[in-house]
User: What shape does this take?
Amino acid sequence: MEGHKIGIMVLLFCGTILLGVNPTNAAKLCPDICLDYAYMTCPSSGNQKLDPACNCCFAPGCTLYLSDGTSTYCN
Assistant: This one.
């Protein structure tokens, strides 16, 4: 029975490679945490202060700012 599990895992791993999916980046985990950001800026809007997203999962490429001036760049 253990051999079947390993065989299935190998088959799934090979299938993801053949489909062009990088198994190390296949799933991005987003925390279910919302910080109280004051505003955000994004390259598409220049320096305009936008209503903030809940966290970086919803604002890739943007910068989120807390009311104390601390900022977080979202990759």
Notes: The longest helix spans residues 2-18.
